[in-house]
Write a structure and sequence with these properties.
Length: about 600
Amino acid sequence: MTEEPGQKDSELGHLPCSMGCGHKDDKAGLALSQSASFSHQPPSTPASKEVWKKGGRMFSILLAVHLALLACTLVSSGAFEKIAVHDYDVFFLLTVMMLIVIIWIIFYLAGTSRCPGAILGKDSHAGPIWLRGGLILFAIFSLVMDVFKIGYYSSFYSCLSAIKIIYPIVQAIFVVVQTYFLWVSAKDCIHVHLNVTRCGLMLTLTTNLAVWMSAVTDESVHKAHSKLKKNMTEEIFRWLLKVGMRSSSVEECNCNSQICQIFKNGYFWLYPFNIEYSLFASAMVYVMWKNVGRFIDHHSHHIQRLKFRLFRRTFFVGIMLGLIILVSGLGVLILYEVQVNSSTESSKKSQALTMYYIFNIVCLSLMSLVCIGGSVIYRFDKRDMDRHKNPTRTLDVALLMGAALGQYAISYYSIVAIVASTPRDTISALNLTYALLMIAQHTFQNVFIIEGLHRQPPKEDCKHESHQKDLYGLTFVNINAVSLRVPDTGTTLAASAAAGTEAMHASDLIRSLTAPKKMNWRRKFLREISMFLLLSNIILWIMPAFGARPQFDNDTELNFYGDSMWPAIVDICLPFGIFYRMHAVASLLEVYIMS
């Protein structure tokens, strides 16, 4: 990415800060900077361009890389019993990181509130309302999970390390503070304390990723223990669970009470929401990091206030078909959980796998066809491509392409195992079809979403603030219309425009009546497609996130790759596939609103 030249951090000293905001020179410098950044003319001096400090960015990236590697090392080591790294060591590191982030967020909010000139502009594309609303939804479930964790660990606190009770308390405070911070500051383009802000944002991003890695690892270990419990005696299973306890006696830490079992099962079921919260927060923090020191060009970066009309301009076909897929998927999930996870009979397991694969094959086929149809409709769309600089959109595209690699990897591993294995039965054929359709659906959906994100919103939904701009566009259209109607008789364009006033008004009337009708059917079909894909991605996120994982229940891949390699592949790649579905939901909602 080409970095634009900008002024140094020291050159921003004229901006008011928390240490001194009342000097006349500071106010004069601020007014000069604001007048330059709000001007419709291109900036004439390098001082009015965006500030991209390579040194500050590089230092913050190095800080994030080292912390991420340290957290990844501890989290992965704490997942194995033979390594002398316990889970309370991981909790201690995460608790320290979250406390530092909380302190920095308070410093950031206090500093920007005391210094009105710290934020010279807002990025209208960053932190849209539906993304912040989803963040709050996941934050609420994360808080409930922390409450369950506190209740579970408090049931036998006498034999546990104190950090196991402190960690969920600090995490709950961290979730509340960070959610408020992202709600009020997601659009900020800050221009004071640039290096400190960059490092603080990178620390926040790394902390969220570390919490995400810890949650994914904890959930994977829990799933593995659930599988082992079916095939091992109770004594061996208790020995495997002896991690991070003060007492050597496992009997003291048994969770025997009914309320303890509710807390234990409850917080494991809420892990998917906490995982998605960490990833959503990481994405929003990254956009804030990109906007540090950025000057917004208000001439090209105009704010478009789009209205979210769910029950208008739609045929309800996409919504109804998506709801049918969603409800059917929930039924398949319940039956799958009952027949696979709660039964040891092989016949019921085969029936559940067959039902799961058939549902997913039908769903993925419909989604692929719909995405292809949407891409074809975009070929006839007359809207211009939005080529303005947009860090949020760039991140959305990168996350879609990157997260899809997880599901691609699982599908290709499955294809190789099925083709190379013998004998081939019905479940293997369904599994092969499911893997191929998964690759095709991800590819077609990414193309559709990326095309939609790069389209400008409809002109009738854009509210232009300048009346002169509208008048200029109307005159330009009228002159073109008149030039097409007047024959070439040697008259000048100005004379033709002056003599054809009635023709201009008639042409305007015809254009206003015909243009919306031509665009109307395209917009309706795109909204139907977006809503169907949105609801379908929700159920495809719910099923693996809440236990329907045929990769662990199908013996083809497990026998081909072995008991150690295949679970490791799935544990690494599946979280990216789950995140892809939820991120696709947010992107499709934006495409729906933009259509």
